[in-house]
């Protein structure tokens, strides 16, 4: 292949001509303007994709961490409740990968404080065992996780703020009546002392869940069943599905096992679908910019008709002509992709560091815009941008290679 000697290195003449067309002053400034618009369009599309996909990944990551923090990796329950948890827990612990287990009781109640009443989920736990399977101990912001001494209760930060409750206050918990043998059981009202206030940064959890001791919960629910279910913590959360199957095989029917993903499948599926849809929609920005690249290359071919004729006359092949104009188009796309990647990563860093965009907690579960940049996703975005750009160069390069030498030089 013919080469030029440049700065002590060899460069094929196709690349040398392509760079000359790209960086030298064009007779038609309009072509340069379209090329500049193409660069800006590709850069805007790539930057927007990186930021949006980073935000979607941030939501996924934040929700995953907070959900795992407030609930166990695997939940084991039984229709009607588990009347003897000891053999069940021993059986679960025999499964490879299980780290800890904790029984719990869940029931509904009405919390009465400051002449205000709200509906809450009452969760009875053993504070020592619960701290081994969830992060409830780390969530305590005020007071302590002390459920053993006296009639103590732990409530969420947002609930405490709404009802003007502080550590040490006395509140009432009212149970709902139940039908037993066609008779409504007596409604119970118990007084508890607020021992601690927790914040999980999950709005629904911080407003609708309260903790009391396992024994108090059994009495409050008027239910002799020892536990509503068993929380299980495992070594590797990504292996939750495999461990779940082993536990289910070990316990058999009528026990049911569900992972943290099973309990939140709709939420994560919605996030995944939205992430895919946003990628497709925003990729159209890059596609539009690539059409500008195609149009600028077509006009460049028209401007360089004489050059193409001369190149063909001195022996340049059709493949060489294709390479020249393909390199021009790819260079425009590459410049736009590099600028867009740098801009997207910079904006993502600003959003992640300074967190100046606030979100309503009652809608999005979290109060600031989360951003998580994953290297694999950035690589996919840049690769997709370059592939779209490459496709946009095919037709102009093909048309340039088909120009007839005689026709190109007829009027020269």
Identify low-pLDDT runs.
Answer: 1-10
β-sheet strand percentage = 15-25%
Largest sheet: 6 strands, mixed, barrel
Instruction: Count all strands and give the number.
Output: 14
User: Percentage of helical residues?
Assistant: 55-70%
Q: What is the average per-residue confidence, as pLDDT, rounded to a whole number?
A: 83
Could you state the oligomeric state of the chains shown?
Answer: single chain
First-last Cα distance: 28 Å
- Helices, by number, come to 16
User: Domains counted in the coordinates: how many?
Assistant: 2
Q: Strand sequence of the main sheet, in spatial order?
A: 4-5-12-7-11-8
The 3D shape can be described as elongated
Which radius of gyration do the C-alpha atoms yield?
Answer: 33 Å
Characterization of this structure:
By secondary structure, this protein is α+β, with helices and mostly antiparallel strands. It has two domains: about 5-65 and about 265-410, no CATH class; about 100-235, no CATH class. It contains 16 helices and 14 strands. It has helices spanning about 15-25, 30-70, 85-95, 125-135, 135-140, 155-165, 205-210, 215-220, 240-250, 260-265, 265-305, 305-315, 320-355, 360-365, 375-400, 405-410; strands at about 5, 10, 75-80, 100-115, 115-125, 140-145, 150-155, 170-175, 180, 185, 190-200, 210-215, 225-235, 255-260. Helix 2 (about 30-70) runs antiparallel to helix 11. The longest helix is centred in the first third of the chain and has 42 residues, at about 30-70. The chain is elongated and about 105 Å long. It starts with a strand and ends with a helix. The model is unreliable at about 1-10 (pLDDT under 50).
């Amino acid at each position: 292949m013919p080469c030029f000697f440049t700065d002590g290195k060899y460069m094929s003449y196709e690349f040398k001509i392509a760079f000359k067309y790209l960086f030298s002053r064009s007779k038609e400034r309009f072509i340069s303007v379209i090329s500049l618009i193409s660069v800006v369009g590709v850069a805007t599309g790539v930057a927007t994709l990186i930021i949006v996909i980073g935000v979607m990944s941030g939501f996924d990551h934040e929700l995953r961490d907070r959900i795992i923090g407030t609930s166990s990796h695997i939940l084991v329950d039984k229709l009607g409740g588990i009347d003897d948890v000891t053999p069940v827990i021993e059986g679960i612990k025999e499964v490879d990968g299980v780290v800890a287990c904790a029984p719990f009781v869940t029931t509904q109640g009405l919390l009465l404080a400051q002449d205000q009443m709200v509906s809450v989920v009452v969760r009875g736990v053993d504070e020592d065992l619960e701290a081994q399977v969830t992060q409830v101990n780390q969530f305590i912001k005020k007071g302590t996780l002390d459920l053993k001494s006296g009639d103590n209760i732990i409530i969420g930060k947002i609930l405490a703020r709404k009802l003007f409750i502080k550590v040490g206050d006395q509140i009432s918990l009212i149970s709902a009546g139940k039908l037993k043998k066609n008779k409504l059981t007596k409604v119970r009202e118990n007084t508890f002392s607020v021992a601690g206030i927790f914040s999980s940064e999950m709005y629904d959890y911080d407003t609708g869940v309260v903790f009391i001791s396992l024994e108090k919960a059994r009495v409050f629910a008027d239910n002799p069943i020892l536990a509503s279910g068993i929380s299980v913590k495992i070594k590797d959360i990504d292996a939750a599905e495999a461990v779940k199957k082993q536990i289910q095989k070990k316990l058999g029917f009528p026990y049911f096992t569900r992972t943290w993903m099973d309990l939140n499948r709709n939420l994560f599926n919605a996030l995944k679908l939205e992430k895919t849809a946003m990628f497709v929609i925003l990729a159209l920005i890059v596609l539009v910019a690539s059409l500008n690249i195609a149009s600028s290359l077509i006009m460049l071919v028209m401007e360089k008709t004489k050059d193409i004729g001369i190149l063909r006359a001195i022996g340049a092949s059709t493949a060489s002509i294709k390479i020249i104009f393909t390199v021009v188009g790819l260079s425009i796309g590459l410049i736009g992709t590099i600028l867009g990647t740098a801009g997207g990563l910079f904006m993502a860093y600003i959003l992640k560091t300074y967190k100046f965009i606030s979100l309503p907690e009652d809608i999005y579960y979290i109060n600031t815009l989360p951003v998580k940049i994953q290297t694999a996703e950035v690589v996919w975005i840049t690769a997709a941008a370059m592939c779209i750009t490459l496709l946009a160069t095919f037709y102009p390069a093909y048309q340039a290679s088909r120009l007839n030498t005689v026709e190109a030089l007829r009027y020269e």
